[in-house]
Specification:
single chain, alpha+beta, 10 strands, transport
């Protein structure tokens, strides 16, 4: 029984958390607001961090079809469009009178996700009661921090938090009290200037990305430094980047790359390979059954991407995690139900002898179970593929996006078919060198247990 034990270890090693291969886009918008009071002037550094998908959808709502080009063009355009809007959404009053802020530019960093630092300015009197309230991104579930600091002889009174926003702890909303949540977006202080007010003429600033007017340093629109390019991420994360014109590949070259990314996605930890391997090992059958399962899984995965992208486009929803959890729950229920049904049959001895052909009704039920497993295995979409379709539609290249998605799916199918073939060969080798009848029984039990564990895991993680 050493070989069956070894096979069990191999099969369970494939059972990795499926969420790793289906990372959910972050729909949050995190903000850090640093307000600095100088003699006669207020300066605000308004930092915003958000996902590329959120950025793209917001920009599409603002300007319609996105400009053709690489992500640097989209990112800079987003900063230009939202800088004056964010300045208006940051409400500042002095002694109850509104104080308008003017957008002076922005800085952009793109490491794991785009991060903007917008710069706002306004003229203030020597003393007064200052109130700052952030009303931007009110529907976002992201974090917010707000700090006020006096410089150059300006003294603040009435605020107990650190003057540097970086010293304020980042806390999710559910860990905050009502007072802490209110303070993260609203602050009131008294201030007064103890030195002579500095001249209102502005000194040259560092070169910033231009919003809609000249910067304080006299830089003209279009002369700002180019946006930095995003750092490479996981294999599937590069799928949506194939739409960038800067890749320099022909359509055929992009198809080959998408095929390779699909194969890499299937190799990543996830439940697709485990599903195919466990199903082939659990029952007697040729590699053709594994091929059918791989194709159904891939077709469902591709269809799920298209349906989720269509639903997000029609509803303008950003509830990515809720959608992911609902699909994972459905998939987990189907896999667990079929796994327990198969486990009961194997424990009852119904699948130990398959020398005679199955009756038509039983054969049809077996194929239905196989299709059901394939549908469940492909139901949870690859979110970078969803982003690919949404981006392609936004820039008017939906046809290209669908072609790349199909190539991506074919790459996945190739790996899953190979996994099914290897699982079938392992089963044949084990049963060839071990003539005991019980080997069939324990292989079926082992594969069914893996399906049960996979389904329960998906239900628990949804």
């Amino acid at each position: 029984m050493r070989r069956p034990c070894l096979l069990l270890l191999v099969v369970f090693a494939l059972l990795n958390p499926s969420a790793r291969a289906h990372d959910i886009p972050n729909a949050r918008v995190d903000r850090s607001i640093q307000v600095n009071l100088h003699p006669g002037r207020i300066k605000v550094a308004y930092e915003v961090s958000l996902s590329e998908l959120t950025l793209t959808r917001d920009l599409r709502d603002l300007i319609g079809a996105l400009p053709d080009g690489d992500r640097g063009t989209w990112f800079e355009r987003y900063g230009q469009e939202t800088a004056p809007l964010n300045a208006k959404g940051l409400l500042v009053t002095i002694d109850g009178r509104p104080l308008p802020l003017h957008a002076r530019g922005f800085e952009l960093k793109t490491e794991e996700h785009p991060q903007y630092t917008f710069h706002f300015e306004g003229v203030i009197p020597p003393r007064g009661r200052l109130k700052v309230q952030d009303t931007n991104f009110v529907s976002s579930e992201g974090t917010s921090r707000l700090a006020l600091r006096g410089q150059g002889g300006v003294v603040l009174q009435g605020d107990s938090l650190p003057a540097d926003v970086q010293l304020i702890d980042v806390q999710p909303l559910w860990l905050m009290t009502d007072l802490e949540e209110r303070r993260s977006k609203l602050a009131e202080i008294d201030y007064q200037t103890t030195t002579r007010t500095e001249p209102k003429s502005e000194q040259a600033q560092p070169v910033l990305h231009e919003p809609v007017r000249k910067s304080a340093g006299g830089e003209k629109p279009g002369r700002s430094k180019p946006a930095s390019q995003p750092a490479p991420g996981r294999a599937s994360d590069r799928l949506s980047r194939l739409l960038d014109r800067s890749t320099g590949f022909s359509l055929f070259g992009l198809i080959l790359i998408a095929f390779g990314l699909g194969a890499a996605h299937a190799v990543q930890p996830g439940h697709g390979k485990t599903l195919v391997a466990a199903t082939v090992v659990a029952e007697r059958g040729s590699w053709l059954r594994g091929t059918l399962l791989a194709l159904v899984t891939t077709a469902t995965h591709t269809g799920s991407v298209l349906l989720v992208a269509l639903g997000l486009w029609l509803t303008r929803s950003s509830r990515y995690e809720s959608i992911h959890s609902a699909l994972a729950m459905i998939a987990g229920f189907l896999i667990a139900a079929i796994g327990f049904w198969r486990l009961g049959r194997h424990l009852g001895g119904y699948s130990e002898h398959d020398d005679t052909p199955l009756p038509l009704m039983e054969s049809g039920g077996s194929h239905r179970n196989l299709v059901g497993l394939g549908v469940a295995g492909g139901l949870v979409p690859c979110w970078d593929a969803v982003a690919l379709i949404l981006l392609a539609e936004a820039i008017g290249q939906l046809g290209v996006g669908i072609v790349l998605l199909v190539a991506f799916g074919l790459g996945m199918a190739a790996v899953l078919i190979a996994v099914g073939w290897m699982a079938a060969r392992c089963r044949q080798i084990l049963t060839r060198f071990d003539r005991e009848v019980r080997i069939e029984h324990w292989l079926g039990v082992a594969g069914s247990l893996v399906l049960c564990a996979m389904g329960v895991y998906l239900l628990g993680s949804s």
